[in-house]
Amino acid sequence: MLTHQRLRNLLRFFFPLLFVMYSVGNILFTHSHVVDGVVIVHSHPGKTGHTHSQQGLQTIFNLTHYAAFDRVVPQFLLTPLLIFLAALLPPALPAKCVADRSWANGLRAPPTAITGR
């Protein structure tokens, strides 16, 4: 059973590792294909000298040129994600607010009222 602390520890290492693996994959396995005079550059591990189908090249093109705007991500999906990410944050330290009122001596001006007649 994964506890909250164990999940946080796993995710703390998982996301940087995922980023490093993605970056290394882009650096080490980049290659290009020429299709109808158009050079398509992408990366993935695999054997050299391979070919892709037309559908595969179209998928690579679409994923490379994909842009997500704010209207694509529905608000109802964003709220649980933010709650999940907030749960991963370390707990806040208890605030110790102590007001120094030694200068006031408990005195203040009397209340006033302005009436317009």
Helices and strands, in order, run as HEEHH
Which regions are unreliable across 5 or more consecutive residues at pLDDT < 50?
A: none
Approximately how much beta-strand content do the residues carry? 5-15%
Taking the sheet with the most strands, its summary is:
2 strands, antiparallel
- Radius of gyration over all CA atoms, rounded: 29 Å
Instruction: Give the overall shape.
Output: elongated
**Strand pairing plus helix content: what structural class?**
mainly alpha
Distance from N terminus to C terminus (CA atoms, Å) equals 74 Å
The overall pLDDT average reads 75
Number of H/I helices: 3
Tally the beta strands. 2
Descriptive report:
- With 117 residues, the protein is mostly helical.
- Helices cover 43% and strands 10% of the residues.
- The chain has 3 helices and 2 strands.
- The N and C termini lie far apart (74 Å).
- The relative contact order is 0.06.
